[in-house]
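Entry for the shared binder. Reason: the reviewer on the internal report wants the predicted structure included alongside the sequence.
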Amino acid sequence: MRKTLLIAAAALASSVISSQAGVYSQNIVGYANIPTSNGGTYLLAVPFTIGASNGANEVWPLISPGNPSIPDGSQLLLWGGTSFTTYLSDSGSSSLWDDNGGNALPGAPSVPVGKGFFLIPAANTTNTFAGAVAVNVGTSNSVTFANGGTFLVSPAVPYAGAITNGNPMTGGWAS
């Protein structure tokens, strides 16, 4: 009797733990297709956590060997607080990126969620940003800025649609 009771209790505990584990997930994933035409300069931000480091090689990976997802020679301009650093896409480089002089980089530049950048594509392309939404579920998301700095930032949560300046009762912000 005790053996049967212990087995039943273990089975009940196991089913309760299993049912609790599948209730919700904090992994929110998504994608955004961003068309960029040759000759344009685009102010963008990566809206998702992509890969292990949000490196430019993960944001714009090779589709297949010799087939880049961003045209070779495209320029990525990252703001460093006082000036831009320019990187060039290069599917022949081990990191897929070169410095502005065309020298291969040992590692790809990082484009973290919320950090704005300029992209100047070398040909028409559409990139599909796909990854996890980088929000701290149950807490506030915040960024601290130093006084007197100049920053290029975006929201950490992807948003589609217009943000207007107007009546807060209808979705706009009062000025």
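Summary line for the report: Residues 1-24 have pLDDT under 50 and may be disordered.
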